[in-house]
């Protein structure tokens, strides 16, 4: 192999290493800084509305984003034109999960895992709000 061939292979190898280092560097935020996550709350509310019988009647409250998950409460009119009461929803990457359309226990696990996270105080407060204390 000629000297020129060795030089080209060496340059290619160095270029490959630099590309990998650059990719890792770009993916890692500077120390003390956090990565900004896109705010998907409006997108999530639009997706939830799209699944309603009367999208214009949708009312939202306590909509928040935790990492890439958007969680909140929605109330809308049913087929009879009456509001049914606030119900929880979870949205991620175009996927909407409505509490009213799923098994309650399964939804609770999804809500706890993705919307409340590991904050035990938040989990306990939400559970107490949803399940009244026995008399």
Report on this model:
The protein has 135 residues and is of the alpha+beta class. It folds into two domains: 1-36; 41-130, no CATH class. It contains four helices and four strands, in the order ααββββαα. The chain has helices spanning 3-27, 41-50, 104-116, 120-130, and strands spanning 59-66, 69-75, 87-92, 95-98. Strands 1-2-3-4 form a four-stranded antiparallel beta sheet, sandwiched between helices. β3 (87-92) and β4 form a beta hairpin. The radius of gyration is 24 Å and the shape is extended. The N and C termini lie far apart (88 Å). Mean pLDDT is 76; it is low at 10-27.
Residue windows where pLDDT falls under 50 for at least 5 positions: 10-27
Rounded Rg: 24 Å
Beta-strand residue percentage? 15-25%
Which geometry do the CA atoms define?
extended
How confident overall, as mean pLDDT? 76
Span of the ends, CA to CA: 88 Å
Major β-sheet profile: 4 strands, antiparallel
Physical arrangement of strands within the biggest beta sheet? 1-2-3-4
Estimated helix fraction? 40-55%
Number of domains: 2
Q: Secondary-structure element order, as H and E?
A: HHEEEEHH
């Amino acid at each position: 192999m000629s000297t020129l061939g060795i030089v080209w292979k060496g340059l290619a190898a160095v270029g490959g290493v630099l590309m990998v280092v650059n990719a890792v560097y770009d993916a890692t935020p500077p120390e003390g800084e956090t990565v900004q996550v896109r705010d998907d709350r409006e997108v999530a509310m639009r997706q939830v509305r799209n699944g309603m019988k009367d999208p214009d009647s949708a009312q939202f409250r306590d909509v928040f984003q935790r990492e890439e998950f958007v969680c909140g409460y929605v109330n809308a009119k049913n087929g009879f034109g009456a509001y049914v009461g606030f119900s929880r929803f979870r949205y991620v990457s175009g996927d909407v999960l409505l509490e009213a359309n799923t098994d309650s226990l399964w939804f609770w696990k999804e809500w706890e895992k993705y919307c409340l996270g590991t904050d035990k105080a938040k989990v306990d407060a939400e559970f107490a709000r949803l399940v009244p204390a026995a008399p």
